[in-house]
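Subject: for your reference before the review

Hello V.,

The reviewers asked for a structural picture of the protein, and I figured it would be easier to keep everything in one thread rather than splitting it across files. Below is the amino acid sequence we used in the manuscript, unchanged from the supplementary table.
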Amino acid sequence: MKQTGASYQDTAIEFNMNNPALIANWNSKFLKEGIEGLREKSKGRPPMSNNPKNKPIKQPNTMSREEQLERENELLRLEIAYLKKLDAFEANPDAFLAKHKQRWRSNSKKKDSD
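And here is what came back from the structure prediction:
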């Protein structure tokens, strides 16, 4: 094409190609980047590196002693409340379920009326 001054269409016909735009693209890459622009480049995602990204290090528990004790008290209160409900359920499952069904129905009526 450079030697004869042929068009992109003529060059495509000469080399049995059906896409003269591809030749135009190759020509512009060659003019901008030289022969390196025409070399095949790898496609897809690059492989993972051997060096993993620095993961943030978990900070040690920075709660004061008082905060730790308050947290422990709260957990113990929750455990006691759970055990009381479990005992009530084991003692009389029907009454326990009936009570919670009533609560559920009254809550659903409130939502329906909104």
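For the response letter, the relevant points are probably these. The first helix runs from residue 8 to 14. The mean pLDDT is 81.

Happy to draft the paragraph if you're swamped.

O.
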